[in-house]
């Protein structure tokens, strides 16, 4: 694993990701690359030396020096409102990473630390901005033309709240062996022609849309704590092995 | 070497001295776990200590009978949040090790669900660590490690293993779960021992 270190980053591009989130593309000349699903610490320093550090998942992976984040605004937050509203191209900040060697997917069919078993499919399950590390995995799968069967179940409030909508659509339209199975579940407003009316995920819906137990999928779940708690619990109750399920949570319980 | 990020002023200038470097105060209680939350009842819960010379085991009631303490401590998560002045209730590890002989200097904590973390034995003794089962006056929720978790508040909170089921002493400081996945072998928040 690459040893994590502090790096100076320059903001290369900012763009709206959703009405409440912004995509930040950072140029980090000394970045050693990162695995799909890794995260970093981002540090801001004020003129009087005051510093604030937060952790963010990385939406990109591989050897390049471009690092893509998608930051959702936490109302009343100290760092995310600055990143979402004030940061602009050319600004500099510091990042520490890459971090995390567990919630990562490595091309070739094996989750980190697991034996290679190319036939086990991968099920990604995300809610809201929790899709960010899963997008990195789906992108690595797509770019590597990896034949591991991949599905993403994405719970999101409305069509406008979908992170990386164009990228996900492109992965879902890729040629067959690497195509991403994409299921969007809208909790508040569904677009015309959606597969089902808006509503929260249920155990039945997860059972319907995720790889079945018999296929022994590797499962990555990321989202707010109550979402991850609920979905991971349903999957274990349905017979999925707890050790096949990797989780990343944010927020309190 | 740090430099200024244009336009950033931040907020909390009155920094609480109980807050280690790089930490931010939270009022809620974030949850971090690598996998699903195990469901362990106090009836089936057992705690064991294994050493080079043998094995000791306690049931839930036997653990409580060792002597329960109330403590108020600060906790610090490596993901940059801290909670200050939390009330906890649990059995100090000193009571457990009164019944255990070992020449080993380290332990691996093992959890229901398979999690592990390594800690030097002398950092678990002298009132520094507990088997905790209540926080802020309530039984520990499963997502926070209930029915019982290790509480080692002077180290980053990943060392305070949720769903604790035992300790295995060891002669060398072998890495546990997060320690194998990039996190520091020791984890002192005051010197920011976060990562390798």
TrEMBL record, chain A:
Q: Which Gene Ontology MF annotations are present?
A: 2 iron, 2 sulfur cluster binding; oxidoreductase activity
Per the record, the domain of life is Bacteria
**Cofactors required:** FAD
Q: Where is the FAD-binding FR-type domain?
A: 4-105
Key words of the record: 2Fe-2S, Iron, Iron-sulfur, Metal-binding
> Which PANTHER family does this chain map to?
NADH OXIDOREDUCTASE HCR, PROTEIN RFBI
Question: What name has this protein been given in UniProt?
Answer: Oxidoreductase
Automatic annotation (TrEMBL), chain B:
Highest rank taxon of the organism: Bacteria
Where is the segment annotated Disordered?
Answer: 1-21
Q: Name one Pfam family in it.
A: Oxidored_molyb
InterPro entries, from UniProt? OxRdtase_Mopterin-bd_dom, OxRdtase_Mopterin-bd_sf
Q: Where is the Oxidoreductase molybdopterin-binding domain?
A: 35-178
What is the name attached to this protein's record? Molybdopterin-dependent oxidoreductase
